[in-house]
Amino acid sequence: MPFIKSNGINLYYEEQGKGDPLLLIMGITAPGSVWEKHLEYWKQYFRCIIVDNRGVGRSDKPSGPYTSSMMADDCAGLLQQLGLEKVRVAGVSMGSIIAQQLAYRHPNLVKSMVLMCPWARCDNTAKDIFRHMVDIKARLKPDEFSRYIQLLIFSKASFDNEVSYQGMLEDRENANKDTNPQPLIGLEGQAAACIEHHTLKQLNEIKQPALVIGGEADKFTPLWMTKEVAELLPNSELHTYPESGHAFHWENIEDFNPRVKQWLLTH
User: For the whole model, what pTM was predicted?
Assistant: First the structure.
């Protein structure tokens, strides 16, 4: 079980595959293992490095608040101790704001990046969603909290698809069996990082190529957030998935995995 000391905390990571390094940064509430189905595909082409962000999984869960720059420095410490530079990075949701800060604060470490459902700032609606997430985490059973997250991230099409919906039901039940659930203190810290992230003035200084992807039916971080990031980055490409939610990378996995692989191979 590989741990490193980075930015004052113990950070858990795993590596799979061979080739050029690809750092995968997960979103709020989720450990790095949630990359499983994407990792299974991408590890055929890259040396994939998954990390448990501070506040979740096997990494330390100090009291917050956290910031996106702090969490980027966590990842920077990991890459530096692995002796890596010019790494490809993919970040989803909270992972995308960490990736922005990593590219801005440590430009020598990032070759290119895929930003999935990103934002450069939160409006009042987004801030209250993150606050509400913390509020109900303290009150709901694990399966009930899992259902709430699913309602945020999946589109109506996923709920209407019986195979997809059965998978959601299984995930809710698995939440009750999780032996290492995220504690409230970890979610509080991560939510603070999401709420306070603000890179409107920094994004135009990030010169690395970026593929920015969003779901057109995302009700968690709406499409205007994704488009704003793409417009501010000077070297970006935008791709959106119709009728898809925050979890468009699951809802369109057969297109998403090879699309990202091909873009990364050429950037």
Answer: 0.97
